[in-house]
Amino acid sequence: MSPNYSISNPDSLLSPSLVIFRDHLIHNIDAMIKLAGGPERLRPHCKTHKMAAVTKLMLDRGITKHKAATIAEAEMLAQCGVKDIVISYNMVGPNIARAIDLAKAYPDARITVAADDADCIEQLGAAAIQAGVTIGVVLDVNPGRDRTGVVPGPAAAALYKQIAHTPGLRAEGLHLYDGQQIQADPVERKHAVDQVWERVVAFRELLERNGLPVPRIICGGTPTFPVYAQMTDSVIELSPGTCVFHDKSYGEKYCDLSPFVPAAVVFTRVVSRPTPNRVTLDVGTKAVASDPPMGQRVVLPAIADGVQVLHNEEHLVVETPDSGKWKVGEWTLAIPRHVCPTSALHRAAYVIENGQLIDEWEVTSRDRKLTI
Ligand SMILES: Cc1ncc(COP(=O)(O)O)c(C=O)c1O
Fold first, then answer.
1. How many whole angstroms separate alpha carbon 264 and alpha carbon 266?
2. What's the whole-model pTM score?
3. 112 - beta bridge partners?
């Protein structure tokens, strides 16, 4: 698909603003379902979009299982009617009570959290028993990223046994996020994933031999999505996030993600022409993610030969021999290299369909607290 980013009524759009091309978004959701082999194998991570409207589009297409990073994201999912929610971190501090409150507020939803720590498991179980609820727990496995999780082996098995035997908790399987698998070559990426997967399968067998069922293994993000999607193990749940909106860094790096197109971009205007070869746009670091290296945070298709020389809170300064073509006040689109933090910078997004502004969607769970 060669995406069309035309906007026929740009004068009504504030800048800088997040713009979602609804056709492209739906294309990505459908591509995700196709790659997965069906909506039932998916558990997309909502941290990329954070939007109730996007969640509902996925529910309409039969994607019933979702993953969240924060209680606010989980609450947004529950408000949308999602009945199977996994929060991917240990519940710590007041988040223990918030997870319990979420389960109480949505009794017909299965609320599951990831855990990798004996104290967290104990505290969560005690709080669940006191509140009269049951919380699902997936053991967070460390697949080599060394960010969270426990390495598969006897100590990890003991933790899973603790989960299974703690009143108030339900052992729901394993969770692994392998963000270290960033090999551009799909064959190399698959090889690396297969090596980890062998250890995870051996670990699952160890648990099952000890009478501990493993009903699900929640796997990966967008780069490893095509790899796990090819596997036929029925317990696998695929949890990409980024490909729903997609972005330039994944788009440029991974040829096997070519079915996905950027669906969320930043609408920006020229706010100054400070020197003869410079164009200054209002897409600063408060409008687009600044975790990619300076000079590479956005792609500007309309200023393809531009060099991004300065990026401040409200300004992106681009040097281009074609600066004379740009007038102050003219608009263009900036495609983020990292879309997930970009969406969190905006309260709402304009929605464009067939070139027309058709709606505005709230970025519902950009706040860390909704009600709970
Ligand atoms: C725990 C977890 N699961 C899934 C994802 C989704 O990964 P991606 O953004 O590559 O789709 C992330 C991304 O940060 C994550 O942290």
1. 7
2. 0.97
3. 86, 136
Burial class for 71, CB neighbours closer than 10 Å (0-12, 13-18, 19+) = buried
- DSSP H or E segment with residue 123: helix 118-131
Helix (H) or strand (E) holding 141: strand 135-141
Judged by DSSP in three states, 103 sits in: helix
Any atom of ligand 1 within 6 Å of the Cβ of 70: no
Residue whose Cα lies nearest atom 6 of ligand 1: it is: 221
Predicted confidence (pLDDT) per residue in 183-230, tens digit: 999 999 999 999 999 999 999 999 999 999 999 999 999 999 999 999
Tell whether ligand 1 has an atom less than 6 A from the beta carbon of residue 143: no
Going from the Cα of 7 to the center of ligand 1, the distance in angstroms, rounded, reads: 31
Burial class from Cβ neighbours inside 10 Å (0-12, 13-18, 19+) for residue 353 reads middle
Residue identified by tokens 């959701």 is 29
Write the CB contacts of 134 (distance below 8 Å, at least 6 apart in sequence).
Answer: 103, 128, 168, 169, 170
Distance 150 CA to ligand 1 centre (A): 18
Two structure tokens written together for 251: 């788009």
Query: Could you give the domains of the chain?
Result: 22-245 (3.20.20.10)
